[in-house]
Design goal:
Layout (H helix, E strand, L loop, with lengths): L10 E8 L5 E8 L5 E7 L6 E3 L5 E3 L2 H11 L7 H18 L3 E3 H15 L1 H11 L5 H18 L1
Parallel strand pairs: 4-6
Antiparallel strand pairs: 1-2, 2-3, 4-5
Helix pairs in contact: 1-2, 1-4, 3-4
Length: 155
């Protein structure tokens, strides 16, 4: 592991503990070169399915891309970084359980939408405005009204 401060490659592990869901290991390390501490996270390297885009292109699943989209949707909203990480973990677990070699991007988008709908209306609408094929403002208003109705029925 390379030190993020001085780029030295020698370090020692000071503390190791599993994450809450035990899907990842957190390690505190101390650089032998500069003495500063930093944290690393390890997760099992599992083969994720290829993502099939709407135009039939295929690309490797990218956790950072999914995280980025969620972070943009939740920007300045009361959704913690830990919650966003948990959402991505849930979606990845679902992908692994499918056991498919390829998965349509719409399956990922739908999974994100269903989770955002449960936790934050504004984040849901932000993500939906990019993901769903709205043709005009009227369709966006229809989606807002559907969201309001579903919240009233669930209350």
């Amino acid at each position: 592991m390379r030190c993020p401060y001085c780029s030295a490659t020698e370090d020692k592990v000071v503390d190791t503990r599993p994450s809450e869901d035990e899907q990842m290991i957190r390690r505190r390390r101390e650089c032998i070169g500069c003495g500063r501490r930093f944290t690393t996270y390890e997760r099992v390297g599992e083969e994720m399915p290829m993502v099939v885009k709407k135009d039939s292109r295929r690309e490797a699943y990218d956790r950072q891309k999914l995280l980025g989209g969620l972070k943009k949707a939740c920007d300045k909203r009361p959704v913690s970084t830990e919650r966003i990480d948990l959402i991505v973990d849930e979606i990845e677990r679902g992908l692994r359980e499918l056991g498919e070699k390829e998965v349509p991007s719409s399956k990922l988008g739908d999974a994100v939408l269903s989770r955002l709908r449960e936790i934050d209306d504004v984040a849901y609408l932000r993500f939906a405005s990019v993901y769903l094929p709205f043709k005009n403002a009227g369709e966006i208003m229809d989606e807002v009204q559907r969201l309001i109705r579903s919240k009233e029925e669930g209350a």
